[in-house]
Amino acid sequence: MKDSTANYFNKHTSAAPLAVFRMFFGFLMLISIIRFWSKGWIHSLYIEPIFHFSYYGFESVKPLGLYTYALFIICAISSFFVAIGYKYRLSVLIFFLSFTYIELMDKTTYLNHYYFVSVVSFIMLFVPCNAMFSYDAISAQKSYKTVPKWTVDTLKLMLGIVYFYAGVTKINSDWLLNAMPLKLWLKSKYDLPFIGQTLMQQEWFHFFMSWGGMFYDISIPFLLLFRKTRSFAFVLVVAFHITTRILFPIGMFPYIMILSTIIFFDAKVHHKILHFTIKILEFFKMKTNNVKLSLSQVNHYKVWGTSRLIIVVFMTLQIIIPLRSLLYPGELFWNEQGYRFSWRVMLMEKKGSSIFKIVNSEADSFFYVNNDDFLTPVQQKQMSFQPDMILEYGQYLGDYFKSQGHENVAVFVESYVSLNGRLSQQFIDPSANLMELKDSFKHKFWIKPLNDEIKGF
User: Fold this and answer.
1) Are residue 293 and residue 355 in the same domain, yes or no?
2) Are residues 385 and 295 in the same domain?
């Protein structure tokens, strides 16, 4: 076993897949940041709100006022430098830190694909994506034809983890037996041309999409691994993500996943992509002699053992972290304890209503809070059904009204939530004083149990 492991880590493979991955990843991130800025989301999500929801343990990470724009500029520039492989290690480090800081500024904006970008950019810190076809390789006149095989396999494994968990978590009674929440979402697409009022309203189609989505996610990493099924699998990847892009507002995620899965193809495909890139450069009258030279070197790139150890530990955590929900009692979709960072993609539709009551515990007087005075509509929507956000906001309200001269402040919430089409029911224990609670990784006993059972993982 020890010998076979050592032999594996000593194997080399073409550096072309890493070069292509770096190029696509960097340019997609640049486009994503430009898109985010152009839609005015920097202002509406980070500048406009007076309160921001923080992640447990990262409470000090907050927006930087108008300097938040500078943070996005830094992130955009570093993503471009990553794409062209300019001072790659420094560039990908700056990108990882700036992008992750942006995502930590407000929990309201959490999305699986944002987390995916942070995870992948961290992996890229330790794999030589600049070994070939990069500014670094050209300027140093030191390009590498091969890299350790595990560096390419790590990115394949990360994609496999995302897909596999996304599929396994769909094996639940809501998704497979009730076609929920897809049934709700697809029916709402009645305005789509030709199919909106026909196909989207058919119950058999809702189940077809649910079961098809589950089988797709579970099987696609294995289909991509084998040469005989790889082309077919990639067609499925393109069809699946283009379909989801049409049906759902999920931004750049489909394009990120489509281009990322190219890394599963043989080196010949990646070399064709690199040569095609050279032709594009030549079309714009750019000199490519040095670029071509970076494809013809024969050196073997060596990676420090420390980098390998960090990646092994990190990938082990990526396999374990999605399983942490098994440590908590109750229904995961309801209490969401261990839900984030577990690649549970589009599994639930929750709507909530949370009214906060500020009480003087000694004078027995109280008043209700108008959430519009403190939160944006987007923040209110997300807060209304996520228990840790309800707790954080409730405690913020308590501290705020204390600072306004109110005494003996206690905060209670009347919260009702509906899950995947069920009738709404009480979500938070109305007798729990939020000012006396503490957020932690422990079970949140103050969440009322769901009056139903969802069978599955």
Assistant:
1) no
2) no
- C-alpha–C-alpha distance, residues 8 and 124, integer Å: 20
* Cα of 195 vs its chain's centroid, Å: 30
Q: State mean pLDDT over 234-238.
A: 96
Among residues 183, 258, 236, 230, the alpha carbon closest in space to that of 420 is found at 183
Going by C-alpha positions, the residue among 59, 126, 67, 129 that lies closest to residue 98 is 67
DSSP helix/strand/coil, 349:
coil
* Tens digit of each residue's pLDDT (9 = 90 or more) over 99-133: 999 999 999 999 999 999 999 999 999 999 998 88
- DSSP for 282-312, please give it: HHTT---HHHHHTTS--EEP---HHHHHHHH
Distance CA 455, CA 140 (A): 57
The residue from 260, 291, 325 where one domain ends is 325
The Cα angle at residue 361 between residues 356 and 367, in degrees rounded to 5: 35
Task: Count CB atoms within 10 A of the CB of residue 429.
Answer: 16
- DSSP for 353-410 reads EEEEEEEETTTTEEEE--GGGT--HHHHHHHTT-HHHHHHHHHHHHHHHHHTT--SEE
Overall number of domains in the chain: 2
Tokens (6 digits) for 7: 């032999």
Residue 282, token pair as written in the block: 């030549």
pTM exceeds 0.70: yes
Please tell me whether residues 53 and 150 are part of one structural domain. Answer: yes
Regarding whether 316 and 383 lie in a shared domain, the answer is no
Q: Which two tokens stand for residue 250?
A: 């999920």
Q: Under a CB-based contact definition with an 8 Å cutoff, are residues 258 and 278 in contact?
A: no
Edge-first strand listing for the sheet containing 350-360: 365-368, 350-360, 409-419, 425-426
Let me know whether 321 and 383 are in one domain. Answer: no
Domain limits for position 371: 351-457
